Amino acid sequence: MINGKKIVVVMPAYNAEKTLEKTYLEIYKDIVDEIILSDDCSGDSTKELAKKLNITTILHEKNLGYGGNQKSCYTAALKENADIVIMLHPDYQYTPKLVPAMVSMLAFGEYDAVIASRMLTNSALKGGMPFYKWIANKFLTSFQNLLIGGCLSEYHSGFRGFTREVLEKLPIEDFNDDFIFDNEMIVLLFYYKFKIGEISCPTKYFPEASSINFFRSCKYGFGVIVLTILYCLANLGFYKSKIFSKNGKKLNLDRSLNYFYKKN
Questions:
Q1: How far apart are CA 165 and CA 263, in angstroms?
Q2: Which residues, other chains included, contact 25 with Cβ-Cβ below 8 Å and sequence gap of 6+?
Q3: What is the pLDDT at residue 172?
Q4: Is 25 exposed, middle or buried (0-12, 13-18, 19+ CB in 10 A)?
Q5: Can you tell me the distance from the alpha carbon of 197 to that of 60, in angstroms, rounded to the nearest whole number?
Q6: pLDDT tens digits, 79-134
Q7: Are 158 and 92 in contact (CB under 8 A)?
Q8: CB-count exposure of residue 164 (10 Å: 0-12, 13-18, 19+)
C-alpha cells in the first residue's frame, strides 16, 4: 500500500509463458497488494506457469480479444477493492520497476491516470521499435494532441495506471474488444476531464514480446483517426454514441469470472 491505497497490478496475458516469470519477479511486491493475470485462452503454458508463481489467475474459455481481456482484468481488480490499478503486459516489453513511481503519481491525488511513455526520450528506437511504428506513433500522437487539445508524448503505450474512480466512471463495457480499446481509454479520459500524467519508460522489442503485425497496426491507426474525429464531434454536441453519451455501461462487477487459481 501507499497512502492507505490498495494497489493491484493486472496482467492481460496471451501466450506469455516465455516472459511471464521475468516480468512477475521484477514487480516490487512491497507496495503491491495483489497481482491478477487474465489468460485469454492461450495456446501455451501461461496458466500453468501462473499457478506455479502463485498468481491469481482468470481463465477465458474462449479468446475475448485484447480489450475484452482488459475488461476481465479491471473487473477482477475492482472486485478485490483496488484503489489503484496498474496494467502491465506480461511480455516484458515494459519494465515492471516503474510500478512504484506510477503508483505514487496516483496515490496522492495528483493524477487520475498515468501513462508510461516510450516517446519522452529516444528509448523507443533504441529499444528496437520498428521505424514505421515510431513514425506512426509520432503522427497519430500529433494528430490527437491537435484535435483533442492534449499535450501527451504518446497515446499508445500499453503500460498505464488508473484510480478506482476512473474505472468505475468510464463506460468500459461499451469499449471495443480489440486493440483500439487502449486508445478509447485515453480519449475518454479527456472526455471525462480526468487528470493524466506521464512517466518516461524504456521499452524492449524482441521475438518473445507481443506486437501486432502491419495489417492490424494499420487497422488500429485508422481506428484512432476515426475515434478522435468522433470525440471532437461529441464535444461539439454533434455526435452521440454509447461511449460518448456519458450514459454508457460501467463495468459489471456481478460478472462471473472463471478463476483458474486464486491465492488465499
A1: 26
A2: none
A3: 96
A4: exposed
A5: 32
A6: 999 999 999 999 998 999 999 999 999 999 999 999 999 888 877 777 777 888 88
A7: no
A8: buried
Cell of 214: 502491419
Determine the pLDDT at residue 208. Answer: 62
Burial of 62 (0-12, 13-18, 19+ CB in 10 A): exposed
Q: Which residues pair with 261 in a beta bridge?
A: 57
Rg (CA), the chain: 17
What CATH code is assigned to 7-249? 3.90.550.10
| Cell triple for 23 | 516480468
Tell me the β-bridge partners of 200: 117
Q: Which set of grid coordinates corresponds to residue 181?
A: 480499446
pLDDT digits (tens, 9 = 90+) for 199-219: 999 887 766 655 667 778 889
Q: What is the pTM of this model?
A: 0.92
Amino acid (one-letter) located at 223: G
- Give me the count of residues in the chain: 264
